Amino acid sequence: MNGAAESVVRRALTDRDPLPGTAGFAGEVDGYLVRDVLGRYPLFSERDDASSWSFDHRDLTDPVAVPPGHARRTNGSPSDDEQVWTLPDPDATTDTDEALERVRDAVFESVRSVESDGLAVAFSGGVDSAVVASGVPNAPCYVAGFDGSHDIAAARDAADAMGRDLRVVELTHEAIERAVPEIVDALGRTNPMDVQIVLPLYLLAEQVVEDGYDRLAVGQGADELFGGYAKVAKAPDDPRVEAETVRGAAREMVRTLPDQLERDVLTLRAAGVEPVAPLLHDRVVEAALPLPGELLVDDGRRKVALRAAAKEVLPESVAEADKKAVQYGTYASRELDRLARQAGFKRRMENHVQQYVESLLE
């Protein structure tokens, strides 16, 4: 079992408790393959033989993922999967002071309970990674990006403000060309957006391993749980979300987590580190789900509740810092596109970046 003791998972199955106080789990218990409600750990079995399973799809001939919140009999097949957990859908709290206190307590307990042995921090200079770093003051901070990128500049500013040392992993075209086939192999995906998002993370993790660390703390989950996306802030006017409210749009984003986390976990493990995501602990999820819209987004200011908590441990400049999506803040997207065009895959061609990615596999 990854992520939790079998006794905890067994009790969660009996009680149908979707948030039993873990940071996620996946594995086998009592003849079932189980994966937590947010899919925080990947889990796969053979399509025709669920008794053959793995945390890595590459170990299997015809892998099928166990869906989040489901149980699969090891003597059955994916067609017999049973959903045993669903994500809670609480009403919005009306006591904003209590809601802010719950977020603060949950976030600080989670980041401060992380063991620092063998741990490094993926640090972009945004509030998510800075809050995580605040809980492990002795862990080294790493940022990846091309020279001149937003993330490197932001991380340097934040590290200076926090009095933290920062190690910069400068990306290169050569590193991209080497890493893309390795990432595609780990993911089983050639989708350019997925590749662009994890490229900096993969190359950062490789450096972390080279420096002697085997665990990487990340800020994953904060944008989804606390309203960090522009399309959430613009709801219902943004066509990328279906919801009619900011709170509804945030919940849409939470439902995207299983696919994102499978991608990120598989990538980091392929690079040689085990991810640690304290902002995805059940206690943080429980504190975030009841937040009213105004504690997610207020007059365009995103992640209101998280920033309020962060100001207790971070300089205001860091707690309020804006952050670009990783593929843009590191220039990974721009430079992968540049390499594709240099290789003859022009923008007028359909899916030109994906065609380039697939060409690297050859």
UniProtKB/TrEMBL annotation:
The keyword ATP-binding applies. GO terms for molecular function: asparagine synthase (glutamine-hydrolyzing) activity; ATP binding. Residues 1-25, 55-94 are annotated as: Disordered. Residues 103-236, 244-347 form the Asparagine synthetase domain. Residues 8-18 have a biased composition (Basic and acidic residues). InterPro entries: Asn_synthase, Asn_Synthetase, Rossmann-like_a/b/a_fold. GO terms for cellular component: cytosol. Keywords: ATP-binding, Nucleotide-binding. Transmembrane segments: none annotated. GO terms for biological process: asparagine biosynthetic process. This is Asparagine synthetase B. It comes from Haloferax marinisediminis.
